[in-house]
Amino acid sequence: MPSQLFSKLSHWQFAILACASSIGYTFSIGDLSKFLEYDEAEIIKELDQLGAFVNIFGSEDKEYSFISQEIYQNLLTYLHTLEEDDKAGKAVFYHKIKATHYQTKFDMLLAQIKNHTHYLTEIIKNPCIQEGNWEQSLMLITETLSKVIDVTRVSVWSYNEEEGYIACLDLYEKLYQTHSKGTVLYQKDFPSYFKALEDEVIINADNALTNEYTFEFAEVYLTPLQICSMLDIPFYIGGKLGGVICFEHQFSFRKWKVEEIMFTTSICSVISITYQSLLIKQSEKELKKANAEITSQNEELNQQQEELAAINESLVMKNALIEMQRTELQKQYETLDTQQKQLIDTTKRLNKSIEYAKSLQDTILPKPSEVLNFFTDYFSIYLPKDVVSGDFYWFYQVSTQKAIVVLADCTGHGVAGAFMSMIGNTLLHKIIKEKGVHNPAQILSYLHEDIISLLRQKEERNKDGMDVSICLFEKHNNVSY
């Protein structure tokens, strides 16, 4: 019978076995010491006296187990019987220890909650959170969680449902005190884990190597980094899954506590608030930028309006000036038209005068009959450049046997040349006909002196003149010179 089996034990020995059974079939000295709030060495001494009930389990001397399932079940049955009899001394002693244990656990939990509340308040009050500084806020959160939860690796991941991946926004490694980011994990590689995300499940993996949601990470992620336990808690942004906070405990397995999950859930709310603050700050920044651009555009428009007003005023002045110029041009046009008419009239009169001058010049040229009276045959080519010309030829028959022919090229063209040709004709008439000079050399000499005198070339430095060739023909000698 169970009562006979345990009746010979002292109250203290019975309390040790009862507390050990509350922990489980196997238990550690550390857990039992915390439960009883008693020194480990003293508990080990007592356990050595209880060899009929428990023995060392495994390779380490601090791990124990009941010697059989029968002993373990008998103890549980006996404890149930004692709980129905409050007057039993062993039960009363056990309940006192149990009550003390739970009070201690409650006090520890309360202290932990106060500690969590303190850190949560500090995070919320931090300027990074208030200002929506996303990267700095994530670094603050991961470092705080690592410190409070006492875990070596803490990270925050964003979730992209459409493209099926999570991306690391910040990873804090306590051992190295470093932050990193950028790792991407895809749904096609870890379908079980992403199924948990889609179902919005808190992934509480005391043994991440075998957990139904995390075992897929074992070979490529968990084992190389010696990660034994994982805790992934989702956070939400705008009512939708935004990502997860991931705890990765290295080098040993760990049982995650409810208060740790609750604290992290509160931090998830902080992440959501921070992201919303970031969006608000970005909206305010964009609005401020838009307002600045509008202000700048308004200033530019005002400046352009002022410039347009100045341009318009300038155009008005220019139009007035153009109108004045147009009026002036109209007057000038009318003046030019009048002058043109006068010029046309003058030109007509001048042309008539020139035509008349030509007729006069033609009269001084020898008549063909006069020349044929001396020469049996001759021809002349006379092609003036202008209507009247400075070129002329002159003929005088001295006698039936003698005649003088003159070819002259006066300086100038047109009217000026024509005047010189008239002077030349007059002087030749005077020298040859009136004075009777028939020697070509003497004729040229007299002609030269008369032109200098007539044109006053010595006083006025006038250089007008003519190139002259004079030929004297004598029939009876058949000579010319």
From TrEMBL:
<dbReference type="InterPro" id="IPR003018">
    <property type="entry name" value="GAF"/>
</dbReference>
<dbReference type="InterPro" id="IPR036457">
    <property type="entry name" value="PPM-type-like_dom_sf"/>
</dbReference>
<dbReference type="GO" id="GO:0016791">
    <property type="term" value="F:phosphatase activity"/>
</dbReference>
<keyword id="KW-0175">Coiled coil</keyword>
<dbReference type="Pfam" id="PF01590">
    <property type="entry name" value="GAF"/>
</dbReference>
<keyword id="KW-0378">Hydrolase</keyword>
<protein>
    <submittedName>
        <fullName>GAF domain-containing protein</fullName>
    </submittedName>
</protein>
<feature type="coiled-coil region">
    <location>
        <begin position="280"/>
        <end position="339"/>
    </location>
</feature>
<dbReference type="InterPro" id="IPR029016">
    <property type="entry name" value="GAF-like_dom_sf"/>
</dbReference>
<feature type="domain" description="GAF">
    <location>
        <begin position="135"/>
        <end position="273"/>
    </location>
</feature>
<dbReference type="InterPro" id="IPR052016">
    <property type="entry name" value="Bact_Sigma-Reg"/>
</dbReference>
